[in-house]
Amino acid sequence: MKAKLLILGVLHRGNFHPYEIKRRLENAMIECYTDVEVGTLYYAIRQMDKEGLISTVSHQRVARGGMRTVYKITAKGKTEFVDLLHRQFEEDGPVSQTLYGALLFLHLSDLSIVQDLIRDRIARLDEQIAKLGPIRKELRPVLSTGGEHLLRHLDQQRRLDRDWLKGLLTDVKARRVCDVVDPKRLAID
After folding, report:
1. According to the model, what pLDDT value does residue 19 have?
2. CA 173, CA 115: separation in Å to the nearest integer?
3. Which CATH class, in words, describes the domain spanning 3-104?
């Protein structure tokens, strides 16, 4: 999961300094499925500022005598964000590694595009599941116990991801996609 996507997503909610961005991501329980290191976050913010995806709104004095910079998302950043968000739905791999972070911002996506991307992803999983059956059958006589468990897990994981994506697709098709009820609560420690 790209830090850029997460930072731009948070900045859709308002203008924040890097520590507040990190705090909001923590309050959204992002650490359950990806690491957002403070150093990575600050580096990504500096790069995004240079690229014109975000810009400085103000500098604030902090209690210990330092300064902190508050950023806002730019029009270029909003365009980049939507592109990054949609690309996450195209990614191959387990949904836990590719989609969990993107789901925080599903309400900001173009649902027609996401609907098609989810359908494509389900079709790819169906193909992968279909290919795995003959491979398991062919290798069964020579597989180790560990190899058998590995192939079984791959099959189960792909089926679980496919079924989960079908549920997500149902909500996207029905336009049952919304933001959190009270976005201000994301700022609460």
Report:
1. 87
2. 7
3. mainly alpha
